[in-house]
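Feature request disguised as a bug report, sorry. It would help if multi-protein outputs had a clear separator. Right now it looks like this:
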Amino acid sequence: MREIFLRYTAVAFLMLSALMSAAQDKTLRVDYIFSGTDRSVDISLDEMSCFDGWAGRRTNLDSVAVRGNGQICMKDVQTGEILYRQSFSSLFQEWQTTEEATRVRKAFENVFLLPMPSAKAVVSIELYDFWGSVYASLNHEVDPSDILIRQIDPTAAPHRYLLKSGTPQECIDVAIVAEGYTAAEAEDFYKAAQTAMEAILAHEPFGSYRDRFNFVAVALPSEDSGVSVPGEGEWKKTALGSHFNTFYMDRYLTTLRLRQMHDKLCGVPYEHIVILANTDTYGGGGIYNSYTLTTAGHRAFKPVVVHEFGHSFAGLADEYYYDDQFVEYYYPESEPWEQNITTLHDFDSKWKDMLPEGVSIPTEPMKSNVWEECSAGKPMEDFVGVYEGAGYQSKGVYRPFMDCRMHTNGAGSFCPVCRRAIARIIEFYTE
């Protein structure tokens, strides 16, 4: 019995040592290039660098909250134990679904922040298809003593804390970043950043967990005011090189310059990024565990920044849809990884436990006037159902609520299912 106990203790110690070896107060930054077409993919290691400080999570290092469209994993070479794992989505994978990807090969930057290991480790990165299968991967070794891991001595950009609930070790650090604001417009940016933070915290469950967040506004100066609009022949010199017309879609505003963005943020603790563009044109985007980008001058700024943060922070799916189903992302033989939509392939893993007794699957939608009349004074939980139309598709994909922040800008809040999904992410990072 004593030998079994000692053996168990030794294994537990090795596991704990492996996990702790990746929890040093130093960050390993790994830059990759994802390239290919709609049918081919190459993942290439571009550069590794490191800097002092680790603002990432210190709990649940060996697991992920949701699957994502890809994962990066770091394992100790000697023990094989997982030191760190993170899930993500990428603009490259989204581009692969476009018509352009059928006729040209393109490359996209991707940047990941990992805790610096104290001994040799293996990093693996995987991309998943619509069915959750691995369709591209790369493995490579990280040796902390490698002389070609570039040591960065960060100089913090101009910044101002809007909310500081604790240290980076204790809290989730969100950087709200200026794009298209000149140095003379810094105060305008700080006001917009305050508005963005207040909008996020005004939505549950963020408000109830506000003491687990730090929000810092980073006033990156741009040479030009505004952002680029290629469709109008307008190109600006801005801090992050963002532009509308991503994938030739008028309202899709993104930046492809991820290395440049992370270079400029180095020196300010951050885990999640919200970029505010200095324009009144409607648009933006949110990419899970990459960034949110939205326009600060439009009248729908507040609901949009919250919606996009739902994507980038919590991995929530869009719940709106198009009658023509111009893009098919979800298939009946697989269950989406996003927690707020379902194909009913594995509905038990979603919000089946939240359905009121007697609710049919699928659920017959109510007309808007009936919905408003019935919902007055009743708890939101009473109206959780399985309503067809979500994930851009009018058929075969279902959402949990008639209206929600992930469905329309007019919705007043996240639905109960989205609220639970967000709470789970927050607790994953902090408990």
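(second protein starts here, but nothing in the output says so)
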Amino acid sequence: MSDYDSENVFAKILRDEIPSLRVYEDDEFIAFRDIDPSAPTHVVLIPRGEAPTGLDQLTESDTTMLGKLTIAATKIARELGLETDGYRLVLNNGPDAGQTVFHLHMHILGGGRLGPVA
């Protein structure tokens, strides 16, 4: 990605330059507690390495990664005990949607009744 900022907060978390409370880690992704949670349980799941900056940067070659991201999120939600009462997976694209870090990421939200989507 030519417009990828290697100094973004998620890149720094991946390099362990910024601490995070990790709840999941594998060869492709890490997940950590959001420092400003929007729900009782709020975890951020990010791909390792230089990720697309947002949904608008995805191409057909990202199909497998995006599928694996979603599967990892459902696994994490199950491990966190969110499966029974429900949870929300959120991908924001662009500032107007609330995206503040331009490294593709998914929010896992749950642990209580969530408000309306829009």
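Even a blank line would do. Unrelated, but nice: Strands lie at 22-25, 29-33, 41-47, 87-90, 106-110.
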